[in-house]
Amino acid sequence: MSAVTTERKGDILVITANNPPVNALGFDVRAGLEAGIKEAQGDSTVKAVVIRCDGRTFFAGADITEFGKPLQEPGLPTVVNMIEACEKPVIAAVHGTALGGGFEVALGCHYRVAVPSAKLGLPEVKLGILPGAGGTQRLPRLAGVEVALEMATKGSPISAKQAKEYGIVDKLADEDSLTDDAIAFANDVADKRPLPVTSQMTANAEAGVFDAFRKANARKFRGFEAPEEIIQVIESTYDKPFQEGAERERQSFMKLIMGTQSAAQRHIFFAERKASKIDDVPDDIQKRDIKRVGVIGAGTMGGGISMNFLSAGIPVTIVEMSQEALDRGTGVMRKNYENTAKKGRITSDQVEKAMGLLTPTLDFDALGECDLIIEAVYENMDVKKEIFGRLDKLAKSGAILASNTSYLDINEIAASTSRPGDVVGMHFFSPANVMKLLEVVRGDKTDKDVLATVMALAKKIRKVAVVAGVCHGFIGNRMLMPRQVEANKLLMEGATPSQIDKVHVEFGMPMGPFQMADLAGVDIGWHRDPNRIEDVRDALCAEERWGQKKGAGFYDYDEKRNPSPSPRVMEIIDEWRAKTGTPQHEVSDQEIVERTLYPMVNEGALILEEGKAQRASDIDVVWIYGYGWPVYRGGPMFWADTVGLKPIVDALEKHGFTVSKLLKDKAEKGEKFN
Ligand code: T1G
Q1: Where in the numbering of this chain does the 3-hydroxyacyl-CoA dehydrogenase C-terminal domain appear (predicted)?
Q2: Which residues sit with their C-beta closer than 6 Å to ligand 1?
């Protein structure tokens, strides 16, 4: 079946592409479009052209799987320029998501007709590149510089309605008659001489718009190369002839796509999708039907977890021990929704709809109606085993019993039931209604259909799910531990909290180990005996320096929670350096990298060795979506490949670490993780 076919509808030639799953603009599609335009040009009875796609969406962009391979002509810029140069009006019929090169094809057309549910966007920046088929030239001319800067540097799609307001879409069609409406539009303009976007006046730009845009987005773009490159391309070409601008765009495109950041971001694009696949579970396995979710615990985690399902339209029964705790929990959920509505991200109707799906109750037995029950209570194995013992008796047959534990043994919890096959870990990351990562912890006896059901549900609630095996801390928190141990040691040896955190923030992390401790709570896991002081952390906790929530932790905080280095903390650290007799030395930033980041790679290799993660790219996904690892570095294992495994092994051995067998073997063989 050809990827592109043509069909006459009266005077109109309809060019249809069909390249599942998303009509990516691979070679066959590009060649087919080229042939279709040539057919229209060569047939005097053709008065106008409609370009459309079968399936779920208009072109979703260039075929990312072709990147890195020799380009097969015609390249996409050539095809888009051909469309634009056609002497007959070409109309794009847009549905689904016209993204990247797909949007650029539409911009090369002379008109755009779209259904209201369509979205149009330039997500190339999320792959570390830029619109490389004229998007940086046509969009400023069509919709203005500000719209082009916003769309191209942030990569978020806009609705067809918004696109019409910007002058990008010429007509909104009915959802169920797009092709007919596009053909009718084509007939209306058939006798008009097509006016290519690039023949229009160059774009106009307010003075200072580029520097103002840079300043307003400096924090968001920190560390990324592509956004600044895009700003420079538009800034240097918006008032120049199209050909000159197109050449500048091509140069920047080539520079970015050859770079490490783009390789990292493309790696994560595919890694995120690969993570949803479980090697020994067929995609088409029958999944369980989840009509109602039960959540035990209406605290921070239980409330956040519940919101994910409510927002996806799934009813939730939430159980607490006291009315006061229940009211507090549901109040926090409502407040969270209302805050989101204040930002314009959801409507007040959506708030009421979500909250309307919530059934708060003190009646534990109400969980008997649920198809999935998620326990989100205190991190204590005895408490969890008691709860699962009760669930075993009251939950309906086939209900999935999940724990939100962040490190406890799922096998031990499962053993407290007569149905270990129904038991699984669902480790949400706080705040659970915001963080995208979900670690799905596979017990030794967890049934395959339970895993498949939870993975599919994760996609429905817009989470990125990664399967982890049972071990202390699963994948993410397990790798956090060696980082924290070493950070504490470096503190004793001469480094300061600020220096260590600064190295991590400059690396691209949202915050360093001590900033993170202050945010999460220095007192998490503390024995709570102020008289038992065995290290710096105990000393801080004994003085109620529990972190941001107390206005003081490793840092001092003002009323707006702005941190500043704390003289008192340095006194405590100095006391403990003396008390333990720890030899002091000048700690370099490089040593901090080698002793806090390299051990994470080593732990990741152990996780792979033990089979607690399916693939190295899964570990990368965990750290991007669970901890804010900079996506332009591709995750810990991808980043290790870019550093080189041999230098990492040498540094780990220099610092006295025991290097995992897998890491050592790969280093010796010159292999990579990904
Ligand atoms: N190329 C190749 N494969 C793609 C693809 C693409 N552009 N987009 C998606 N796929 C695959 C994906 O890997 C998965 O495969 C399947 O399609 C379903 O995707 C010149 C150079 C369109 C919103 O960045 O945002 O154009 O895992 O699971 O959740 O300027 O896919 O099933 O084997 O994501 O419904 C710009 C990327 C490219 C869009 C659909 N375009 N795609 O989401 O399904 S660069 C993009 C998406 C470019 C030009 C430049 C989403 C989607 P598999 P999915 P979904």
Answers
A1: 473-557, 592-653
A2: 21-22, 24, 60-65, 76, 97, 99-101, 104, 123-124, 127, 129, 131-133, 135, 273
